[in-house]
Specification:
- Helix content is about 50%, strand content about 15%.
- The strands form six sheets. Strands 5, 17, 18, 19 and 20 form a five-stranded antiparallel β-sheet that branches.
- It starts with a helix and ends with a strand.
Length: about 625
């Protein structure tokens, strides 16, 4: 029905229907409730996820994938990512995470979110939170403070939930540690031949009929992007805000109501020396590290340079900076460390402090007392914030009134004739990947623009910058170009394709001969190919020019089966590799205490991830989940 109204709005009959519908809404009072009763995109245990949330998440995912491919991605490859399923699953898991956390009594307070944001370096100037920088960066990236804070809250909730669930996996056996150590430190050496497709591209002859047949099969890869030409009305918060006046009393009231936002807690700059010993370390390690820490405390108090002591003795990541931890406030360090650091005077050196990480010696270099920015300093930022707050509902009222008047007038053109003061914006044809620089930079705007049919009016849409009404003046659907218009690129791609086939066929023939001869050297010599031998390789670590996937697959070889089943194409260089196992070395000897600790931590972390994934999968299996038929 709404589609008919948009396309046929100039009809007198339709205008009459609009009036009747409006009267029914007013009489029965259902205008607001109807918005709340719309079908949800996804429902998880009764919690509704709107189509707006789905679309916003979809657009962000689409943009992230597109940016990874330099801003342009072939349609066939894009479809292989199955973004819709990714987004649906993400939203379901986020809802299950929220619900599971609530059942376990895990929550994140507004104060915790504020403290986290205040400590984010991207929102700081000279080491302190800046409201002006915060609002400016959010606006530049299409966020409002509310949506950003909700995102941060969800991230913090996920982290808290992970940590709580992770407590069920805190041990690793000696056998598990040794097995992982052997797996990581086994080394192999291979003999190999790499056949590069470009070596055969010069031998490719282009047959016109074969080229045309090949292009017919791959022509979708050359399909153009859809284009749209818009006329639109922009009701931005900024434009509306310029017409709003805020009195000084309102500014002062906001300042008093939000005084914590403008306050900075006491901060301290400290150095520390860490001697590691966690809860899994043997008692003798704790005893040794504590004794060494006490000796260092004595040296520090005798006048030895603390930074030099840290560089020499500290086992923490800040040792290279003389143990410098920078500025921190309460709540950022583990409790024993915090209590010791905030009990010291400037220049003071602590006794040995034990935490879950080990034994610390702390020196406080600087104390910055708590401060509150004066009203005069933040007045402009508050004024801007209050104008924006008032501008949002006002912008909606103005935009909604315009939309209703367009429908009543019968068309956008008719509305503009009777409202010449309205500022109309227009574009030429553009693609989604290359929009005009002056267009509204918002995923919802672009998503709506490319969902419209030609001569179709959009609904009133909300963007990060305000509201807009779009009209598709023209639409150019994706087109498969004629071969002659893209011949140069097609011929180059065709040659690459044929060269890859040739290289692969030669690699398969070489592998077959190597199997028959029992050695790759004899087979390569018959084809006048050079055999190379690698250094000893560890799994997951690339050395020299060998691609990582070749190294990883080499570990599947054995003395009884020294050749791969098929040639393997190298990730990155595109060559086809034929190779055989030359040698395998199994690590000997015992692990050091540090190595054992690292492997224990890695195993526990993997177990914790498995426990969390299992918990989430169980939540999803038991949940009542419904998705809209359109998804």
């Amino acid at each position: 029905m709404l589609q008919i109204l948009r396309n046929k709005a100039q009809s007198i009959f339709i205008q009459a229907i609009v009036v009747v519908i409006a009267l029914v809404f007013i009489f029965w009072g259902v205008g607001t409730n109807m918005m709340n009763s719309r079908e949800a995109a996804i429902v998880v245990n009764g919690e509704e996820i709107s189509f707006q949330d789905y679309q916003n998440t979809y657009d962000r995912t689409y943009e992230n994938i597109k940016n990874q491919f330099g801003g342009n991605i072939p349609q066939e490859l894009l479809e292989s990512f199955d973004i819709k399923s990714q987004v649906v699953n993400q939203l379901i898991q986020e809802a299950l995470l929220r619900q599971g956390a609530a059942e376990m009594g895990i929550y994140v307070s507004r104060q915790e979110v504020q403290e986290t944001i205040k400590n984010m370096v991207q929102f700081q100037e000279n080491g302190r939170f800046s409201l002006e920088r915060y609002t400016a960066l959010l606006a530049a990236n299409g966020f409002t403070p509310t949506t950003f804070e909700e995102t941060v809250q969800l991230d913090m909730l996920a982290q808290k939930t992970r940590l709580d669930i992770a407590d069920f996996a805190t041990t690793a056996t000696e056998n598990e540690i040794k097995d992982l150590y052997r797996l990581d430190n086994t080394e192999v050496a291979i003999q190999y031949v790499a056949l590069q497709p470009q070596e055969y591209s010069g031998t490719v002859k282009v047959d016109e009929k074969e080229l045309e047949a090949w292009y017919a099969n791959v022509q979708d890869n050359y399909r153009t992007e859809p284009q749209v030409k818009l006329r639109y009305l922009d009701f931005s918060y900024n434009e509306v805000a310029e017409k709003i006046t805020i009195d000084d009393d309102a500014v002062e009231q906001y300042y008093q109501d939000n005084i914590s936002t403008f306050s900075e807690e006491e901060q301290r700059r400290a150095r520390h020396i860490l001697l590691k010993a966690d809860e899994n370390s043997p008692a003798e390690v704790h005893e040794r590290q504590k004794k060494k820490a006490e000796e260092i405390v004595a040296m520090a108090r005798q006048g030895h340079d603390f930074a030099e002591l840290a560089e020499k003795h500290s086992e923490g990541p800040s040792s290279g900076q003389g143990g410098d931890l920078g500025l921190f406030s309460r709540g950022q360090m583990v409790k024993p460390f915090e209590e010791a650091a905030f009990a010291l005077e400037e220049g003071g050196i602590s006794d040995v402090v034990k935490t879950t990480f080990g034994y610390h010696i702390i020196k406080v270099e600087e104390i910055i007392p708590p401060t509150t920015k004066p009203l005069a300093e933040v007045k402009d930022a508050i004024y801007s914030e209050l104008r924006t707050q008032q501008a949002k509902p006002l912008a909606f009222r103005v935009a909604n009134e315009a939309y209703e008047n367009i429908i009543a007038a019968g068309s956008l053109g008719a509305y503009l004739e009777t409202n010449p003061q309205v500022s109309l914006k227009e574009t030429e044809f553009f693609t989604r990947s290359n929009p005009p620089h002056d267009i509204i930079n918002d995923p919802n705007f672009l998503s709506t623009a490319f969902s419209l049919n030609e001569q179709e009016l959009s609904s009133l849409i909300e963007t990060s910058q305000g509201y807009a009404i779009l009209f598709a003046e023209g639409v150019k659907p994706p087109q498969v170009p004629e071969l002659d218009t893209v011949r140069e690129q097609v011929v180059a791609d065709f040659k690459d394709h044929k060269a890859q086939i040739t290289a692969q066929e030669k690699a398969q023939a070489l592998l077959q001969k190597a199997r028959e001869a029992g050695t790759i050297e004899e087979a390569a010599q018959a084809e006048d190919l050079t055999v190379k031998e690698s250094d000893y390789l560890k799994k997951g670590n690339s050395r020299g020019t060998l691609p990582r996937n070749i190294i990883d697959s080499a570990f599947e070889l054995s003395a009884g089966s020294p050749f791969p089943e098929e040639p393997v194409r190298g990730e990155g260089d595109g060559a086809f590799y034929v190779y055989s196992l030359a040698d395998r070395k199994i690590p000997a000897g015992e692990l050091s205490e540090e190595e054992e600790r690292q492997y224990r931590d890695a195993i526990i972390q993997r177990k914790q991830q498995q426990v969390f994934s299992g918990w989430l999968a169980n939540q999803q299996e038991d949940a009542d989940i419904r998705t809209h038929t359109s998804l």
